[in-house]
Design a protein that fits this description.
Elements (H helix, E strand, L loop, with lengths): L12 E6 L3 H10 L5 E7 L3 H10 L4 E2 L3 H5 L5 E4 L3 H13 L3 E5 L6 H13 L4 E4 L6 H12 L7 E7 L18 H4 L1 H12 L2 E10 L5 E10 L2 E8 L8 E5 L2 E5 L8 E6 L4 E5 L7 H14 L9 H17 L8
Parallel strand pairs: 1-2, 1-4, 2-3, 4-5, 5-6, 7-10
Antiparallel strand pairs: 7-11, 8-9, 9-10, 11-12, 12-13, 13-14
Helix pairs in contact: 1-9, 4-5, 5-10, 8-10
Length: 332
């Protein structure tokens, strides 16, 4: 993104936080490392949690309602609630003239995401799904390295993560919140496959549901324009959380946890091995937040890194994967 002329101060971006939960706490920790950006106001349905968040992160205003938040002099909102509320909150924020950065997955399904994007166009505002991996220094360093010292076109992606340690009250256990491993973990894998292999052609899914009706394990095979992917998610098993990119003249291992990437190893056909290491600063949310702020300052309405077409493709992959297993959410 273009940088501001150092002789002229750049626009200071003020955010409102919708939903003072885990993701929003990481957003607040990260924004401290983003130049000329801050949080002005926070709102959540739980008043005590909202007040505690405001106190923890020294936020001036804990709004009494969503309308109160949207009436304040903010440039953008970060939507950090559960997926079941994303569409309504994003559309209301866009209609109020705010730019929107929404936690993944941006909608429960393709229809909801399409409605959000329609609202973004109607109100001429930036909308971006918060998909952090491509903004990490390691991911960008890997791209540069493969451009300079290639292994050939990536034709296979393997990625996944299972976590059997999440607490029984964790949101992924509840269908009314848009739960399940596919929706909670799968967006990262969907992004990785689409980013390296291109547009989606077909999805095949095996898996099982738990007693609540959400997927507790899923094995997702996808075909893309440039290759194939094998993805897995789960909330009743444990797995490593690394990823592999396979090409004719070598392969890449992005070490766990690959969605917060700090290390990668490139293995070449000629037996060379290259190690990349790029530590994370400020927790990692700062990288996508800086990108989003730069988009606002540049007057853009779509991210070139996470374009709307990418978000729609991720939504399609996730929806086809979960509905193949019989996962349906209330109100769909």
């Amino acid at each position: 993104m273009p940088s501001a002329d150092s002789s002229h101060p750049q626009q200071h971006i003020q955010f409102g936080i919708i939903g003072p939960g885990r993701a929003s706490a990481r957003f607040a920790e990260g924004i401290a490392a983003v130049p000329d950006a801050s949080i002005l106001v926070v709102w959540g349905r739980n008043h005590e949690r909202t007040s505690a968040y405001a106190e923890r992160f020294s936020i001036v205003h804990a709004a009494a309602s969503l309308d109160d938040l949207l009436a304040t002099n903010i440039d953008a909102v970060y939507v950090g609630t559960h997926p079941d509320t994303h569409a309504d909150l994003c559309i209301r924020a866009l209609a109020a003239g705010k730019h929107v950065l929404c936690e993944k997955p941006a909608g429960l399904n393709q229809r909801q995401l399409s409605e959000i994007l329609t609202a973004a166009r109607r109100h001429d505002r930036l909308f971006m799904e918060a998909m952090k991996p491509p903004f990490f220094p390691l991911y960008q360093s890997l791209r540069r390295h493969l451009a300079a010292d290639p292994i050939g076109p990536i034709g296979f992606v393997r990625a996944g993560h299972c976590d059997s340690t999440i607490a029984p009250d964790y949101p992924l256990h509840f269908p009314e919140l848009g739960g399940g491993g596919i929706m909670g973990i799968g967006p990262y894998e969907a992004f990785l496959a689409l980013d390296w292999l291109g547009p989606l052609k077909q999805v095949h899914t095996l898996g099982r549901l738990n007693s609540a009706g959400v997927d507790s394990f899923a094995l997702i095979h996808t075909e893309h324009e440039r290759g194939f992917a094998q993805l897995h998610t789960g909330i009743d098993l444990l797995s490593h959380g690394d990823a592999m990119l396979s090409a004719p003249r070598g392969y890449v291992l992005i070490h766990a946890n690959w969605w917060n990437p700090t290390r990668a190893t490139i293995h070449y056909l000629d037996h060379r091995k290259v190690e990349l290491h790029e530590p994370i600063a400020a927790g990692g949310f700062n990288y996508e937040t800086k990108h989003f702020c730069d988009l606002i300052r540049s007057g853009l309405r779509e991210s070139p890194e996470i374009p709307h077409a990418m978000s729609l493709a991720m939504a399609r992959l996730l929806e086809e994967a979960r509905t193949a297993l019989g996962v349906h959410f209330p109100g769909e």
